[in-house]
Specification:
The structure holds two protein chains of two kinds.
Chain A (H helix, E strand, L loop, with lengths): L4 H9 L10 E2 L5 E4 L3 H12 L14 E4 L9 H17 L3 E3 L9 H7 L8 E4 L13 E4 L2 H10 L5 E2 L2 E8 L8 H12 L7 E6 L1 H4 L3 H9 L8 E3 L4 H10 L19 E6 L6 E3 L7 E3 H4 L6 E5 H4 L2 H11 L9 E5 L3 H9 L2 H8 L2 E2 L20 E4 L15 E4 L2 H10 L11
Parallel strand pairs in A: 2-3, 2-5, 3-4, 5-6, 8-9, 8-11, 9-10, 14-15, 14-17, 15-16, 17-18
Antiparallel strand pairs in A: 1-7, 12-13
Helix pairs in contact in A: 2-5, 6-8, 12-14, 12-15
Chain B lengths: L1 E6 L6 H4 L22 H8 L8 E3 L12 H8 L3 E4 L4 H10 L2 E4 L10 E5 L2 E4 L4 E4 L8 H6 L2 H10 L3
Parallel strand pairs in B: 1-2, 2-3, 3-4
Antiparallel strand pairs in B: 1-5, 5-6, 6-7
Helix pairs in contact in B: 3-4
Classes of the chains: A alpha/beta, B alpha/beta.
The structure holds iron/sulfur cluster.
C-alpha cells in the first residue's frame, strides 16, 4: 500500500521501510524551533535532569533554533528577563541558530527558518508555536508542540509517541483571479472544512494552482492550515522549492526530492477550483466564519494591520504598496505594517514600498509579531474593529476581548485603508 | 465527584483560557492567577479560593484551539480542575497530558453549570440529572506518558534508560 508524503517522511525519520496511519512512532527531529516561550521549555528541560546526576545538555545544538519575535524589543521587564535567560542558555548550550533582537538578521520565526535555509524537504520540524505548520511549504513535516514536549526533544532528539496521522488531500486547480491570492484560498478552505475539520490530520496540497504558486504563497497556506485544526499542512517539494532554497535561502548542499506514492491512501480528497474564488474575509470571532468580501463590504475599520508570519513578506508589502502608492489612508482609520523580517524590511525599503506606505499614512513598525497577538504594539480600544492580514481572530486575540478582528489578504487590507471600510480591491480603492 | 463550575461553548481558544498578554509568565506557580482572565467573574472566584480542586469545566467541541502556549494547560492544572469536552484540539490535548491535567473526552455530554459529575471508569455520570455518558479514551499513543504522571517524569526515565 502506498504512503502519503508525511508517512514517507516519518518512515525515513524512524529508519523504517514504511509506517501506517495510527502507528506510534518516535521520529528523529531535524530542527526544533522556539521563540520567547523557549523560557518555559528551558525550565522544563532543567526539571527533566533534576536528580539524575547527568549534565543538562541538549542533544544537538545545531538542530535547535531560537528566534526572538513575539515581544521585540521587550515590552516589559519580565519579557526582557526571559530573553536574557534564553540568551545565556543559547551561549551555555552552544545553540548555533539564534536570532536575537537585531536589525540585520532578526524577524518572525516562521520567516527566519525558510529565509536562512534551516528547513529542507523531508525534514521533521517541531516548534513551540502552532504556526510551525508553515514549514510544510518546503516539504517538511512540521508541527507545533508545547514547551514540555520541546524540553523532551532537546533532551532526546526525537518526538515521543507520535501517532502517524491520516492525510486529507487537497487538490486545487485553476488560476487565481487578479487580487485573489493564497490567503483567499486558505480562508476559503477553512470556511469549507471548519476550524476543526482537519484536527489530528495532515493537509497535503496538490494541483496546478500549487505548482504555479511561489514558496511565499505556499507559506501562507501551510501557515494557516493549523486554523483548520491540522497537525500539519504540506506541499510536496518541487523545482520551486529548490529554486527558493538555492536562490533566496542560499542553500548549496544537494537536496533530494521525493513525494507521496501514486497509490497513497487519503482519508478524504477535497477539490477546489481556484479560478472561481473571490477575496475572502474571516469574520469575528472565528477563523472559519468566512464570507466573501462583498458580503461584508462597507464595515467600518479602526485599525488595519499588514504583517505577521502569514502575510508580512515582500510580495505582500508589494501588493499593499501598489494599491496605496500616491493615495492617502482614510482619516477614520489607521494602518500598521509589520514586515516579517529585517531582510524583507530592507528589501522593501530599497524598492520603495515602505516609502509608498509611509507616505500614504501607514506606520511601519519593526519586524516581529507586533499587533498579531496583542501583547506588544497596536492594541485595540473597546469596541474597535480591526482588519488584519494575520491568521487569528479569536476573541481577545489583539489584546482586547471587547474588540473585533477581521482577517483578509494584503490586497483587501490596502484597498480598505483607502476607504476606511472593508473594500473589494477589484472594485474601487486602487 | 465534583461540581461544574463553568460551562463554555465550542471552539474555546487558548486566547480565552490564557490571554496572550500574560504569556511572559512561564512558571507553573504563577500561571493559574490568569486562568480565563477575561471571564472576570470566574477568574475572581478562582483567585478567591472559592473553587475546590476536582471541580469540572464543561466545554463543547475543539476546546483549546489556537496557540501552542502551554500556559493554557498549566494554569488549569494549577487549580486541579477537570476538563470535560466533546473533543479537544490536538496541541492542547497533548500539552494537558504532558502536564498531567485531567481531561475527559465525552462527545455526548449533557450538563449544566452547578451539576455534580462523577467519573466511573469509562462512564461519566451526571449525578444531578441521573444521566450517564460514555467516555472516549485518550490517545493510546500517549498512555505511557499519562502512566508516568507526565512528560517530565517520562522523559527523565527514558534519559536514564539511555533513550
Ligand atoms: S506573527 Fe502572530 S501568528 Fe505568527 S508567530 Fe507571531 S504571534 Fe504567532
Amino acid at each position: 500500500m502506498g504512503m502519503t508524503y508525511v508517512q514517507k517522511i516519518l518512515a525515513r525519520a524512524c529508519g523504517k521501510e514504511s509506517v501506517e496511519v495510527g502507528d506510534v512512532v518516535e521520529p528523529k527531529v531535524h530542527l526544533a524551533m522556539s521563540h520567547e516561550n523557549g523560557a518555559m521549555a528551558m525550565n522544563q528541560f532543567v526539571e527533566i535532569y533534576k536528580g539524575t546526576d547527568l549534565e543538562a545538555k541538549v542533544w544537538d545544538p545545531d538542530r535547535i533554533a531560537i528566534i526572538f519575535d513575539h515581544r521585540i524589543p521587550a515590552e516589559s521587564a519580565k519579557t526582557a528577563t526571559n530573553q536574557k535567560k534564553l540568551r545565556d542558555f543559547v551561549v551555555n548550550q552552544k545553540i548555533s541558530k539564534f536570532h536575537d533582537i537585531r536589525g540585520d538578521e532578526g524577524g518572525i520565526c516562521h520567516q527566519i527558518l525558510p529565509e536562512y535555509g534551516y528547513v529542507r524537504p523531508g525534514y521533521v520540524v517541531v516548534g513551540t508555536d502552532s504556526h510551525t505548520t508553515s514549514h510544510g511549504a518546503l516539504g517538511a513535516f512540521a508541527f507545533g508542540i508545547g514547551a514540555t514536549e520541546m524540553a523532551a526533544v532537546w533532551t532526546l532528539g526525537h518526538v515521543l509517541n507520535v501517532e502517524v496521522p491520516a492525510t486529507i488531500k487537497v487538490d486545487v486547480n485553476g488560476k487565481l483571479a487578479e487580487y485573489v491570492g493564497p490567503k483567499d484560498l486558505i480562508l476559503y478552505l477553512i470556511g469549507k472544512i471548519t476550524a476543526e475539520g482537519a484536527n489530528f490530520r495532515v493537509l497535503e496540497y496538490h494541483g496546478d494552482t500549487f505548482k504555479n504558486m511561489s514558496t511565499s504563497g505556499r507559506l501562507v497556506v501551510c501557515n494557516m492550515s493549523v486554523e483548520a485544526g491540522a497537525t500539519s499542512g504540506i506541499v510536496p517539494a518541487d523545482d520551486e522549492t529548490l529554486r527558493y532554497l538555492k536562490q533566496e535561502a542560499g542553500v548549496s548542499d544537494k537536496l533530494e526530492l521525493f513525494g507521496p506514492d501514486d497509490d497513497a491512501v487519503y482519508e478524504q480528497v477535497i477539490e477546489i477550483d481556484a479560478s472561481t474564488l473571490a477575496p475572502q474575509i474571516a469574520c469575528p470571532h472565528m477563523v472559519d466564519n468566512i464570507k466573501t468580501v462583498d458580503e461584508v463590504a462597507g464595515t467600518k475599520i479602526d485599525q488595519i494591520v499588514i504583517g505577521s508570519c502569514t502575510n508580512g513578506r515582500l510580495d505582500d508589502l508589494e501588493a499593499a504598496a501598489r494599491i496605496l502608492k500616491g493615495k492617502k489612508i482614510a482619516r477614520t482609520t489607521r494602518m500598521l505594517v509589520f514586515p516579517a523580517s529585517w531582510r524583507i524590511y530592507r528589501e522593501a525599503l530599497k524598492r520603495g514600498y515602505l516609502n509608498d506606505l509611509s507616505e500614504a499614512g501607514a506606520v511601519v513598525c519593526n519586524p516581529g509579531c507586533g499587533a498579531c497577538l496583542g501583547v506588544h504594539q497596536g492594541a485595540l480600544g473597546d469596541n474597535e474593529v480591526a482588519l488584519a492580514t494575520t491568521n487569528r481572530n479569536f476573541k481577545g486575540r489583539m489584546g482586547n476581548p471587547k474588540a473585533e478582528v477581521y482577517l483578509c489578504s494584503p490586497d483587501v487590507a490596502a484597498a480598505s485603508a483607502v476607504t476606511g471600510t472593508i473594500t473589494d480591491p477589484r472594485a474601487g480603492g486602487r | 465527584m465534583g461540581k461544574i463550575v463553568l460551562k463554555v461553548g465550542d471552539d474555546v481558544s487558548t486566547d480565552i483560557i490564557y490571554p496572550g498578554r500574560f504569556m511572559a509568565t512561564v512558571l507553573p506557580t504563577e500561571t493559574p492567577q490568569y486562568t480565563f482572565a477575561d471571564e472576570t467573574e470566574f477568574n475572581k472566584k478562582l483567585n478567591a479560593g472559592e473553587i475546590p480542586q476536582g471541580s469540572f469545566i464543561v466545554a463543547g467541541e475543539n476546546f483549546g484551539c489556537g496557540s501552542s502556549r502551554e500556559q493554557a494547560a498549566s494554569c488549569l492544572k494549577g487549580w486541579e480542575l477537570v476538563i470535560v469536552a466533546k473533543h479537544f484540539a490536538r496541541i492542547f490535548l497533548q500539552n494537558a497530558i504532558n502536564l498531567g491535567l485531567q481531561m475527559v473526552i465525552c462527545p455526548d455530554i449533557e450538563a449544566e453549570e452547578g451539576d455534580e459529575l462523577q467519573i466511573e471508569g469509562e462512564v461519566l455520570k451526571n449525578l444531578t440529572s441521573g444521566k450517564e455518558f460514555k467516555i472516549v479514551p485518550l490517545p493510546p499513543a500517549r498512555q505511557a506518558i499519562i502512566d508516568a504522571g507526565g512528560l517530565v517524569a517520562y522523559t527523565r526515565a527514558r534519559l536514564l534508560a539511555g533513550k
